[in-house]
Amino acid sequence: MKASFENKVALVTGGTSGIGKAAALALATEGAKVVVAGRRENEGREVVEAIEKLGGKALFVKTDVSREADVKALVDKTVATFGRLDFAFNNAGVEGALNLPTDQQTEENYRTVFNINVLGTLLSMKHEIPAILKNGGAIVNTSSVVGQVGLPGYGVYTASKHAVNGLTRSAALEVAKQGVRVNAVAFGTIETPMIDRFVGEAKTNNPQREWLKSVHPVGRLGTVEEAAQAVVALLENSFITGSVLTVDGGWTAQ
């Protein structure tokens, strides 16, 4: 157990599966009390039960991060239950419609993706920062390699992650002298349900999945545990702020 997380409180949006779930479990293992937020109540309660089996303390709060009232209620419930907020991992996100070139994009897809990925990140930080300012702490936002490069057919999703990087850097500068750090993680392809929707589940003779592996110089996709390790490291390191940490198996080094 690391002293930096012992008796501290961490909030994880999009914490019901994938990277968010892994990060919630990792933070609990490090000694933090964890608030799991998401739209899927059954899955959220399962994460809480898993944390409690580890001997940790956790709470699930059903939350749609695109609704400011939900986000405010989430932070208020966190502070009311545990007395403070020290860390936040803003992981809630959607990929939107798949394989839509720019000349076929729709307003509906844009609003769906930006409402969760961008507005959701903004609203989360808006309400988390005042709570974290009371004791100091850190925020990590989920970005992507496509926040740094383009991806044909996914322009709206790509633009949303560029926007997350901008929000992250700006917020970091605003609160750097007040004891709050703000960073993002630009993930490559991590084995999650979202990736199954992108390229299909892992199975024999899946050319799309094999192609996706090939664009990572390490020759494989990342695990949710590896992703969670990066989140924990950014939350813990007291001299990193305003950064977008690339965790992509070498994708963007090419």
How many alpha or pi helices? Answer: 8
- Decide which structural class fits the backbone: alpha/beta
The residue fraction in helices comes out at 40-55%
> What is the strand arrangement across the widest sheet?
3-2-1-4-5-6-7
Radius of gyration: 17 Å
Q: Taking all residues together, what is the mean pLDDT?
A: 94
Helix and strand element order: EHEHEHEHEHEHHHE
Shape: globular
What is the number of E strands?
7
Contiguous low-pLDDT stretches (5 residues minimum) are none
Main sheet characteristics = 7 strands, parallel
Amino-to-carboxy terminus distance: 37 Å
Oligomer: single chain
- The percentage of residues in β strands lies in 15-25%
Please, could you describe this protein's structure?
The protein is an alpha/beta fold and 254 residues long. It contains eight helices and seven strands. The mean pLDDT is 94.
Give the helix/strand layout.
Layout: E1 9-13, H1 18-29, E2 33-38, H2 41-53, E3 58-62, H3 68-82, E4 87-90, H4 107-133, E5 137-144, H5 155-175, E6 180-187, H6 193-199, H7 207-214, H8 224-236, E7 244-247
Parallel strand pairs: 1-2, 1-4, 2-3, 4-5, 5-6, 6-7
Helix pairs in contact: 1-8, 3-4, 4-5
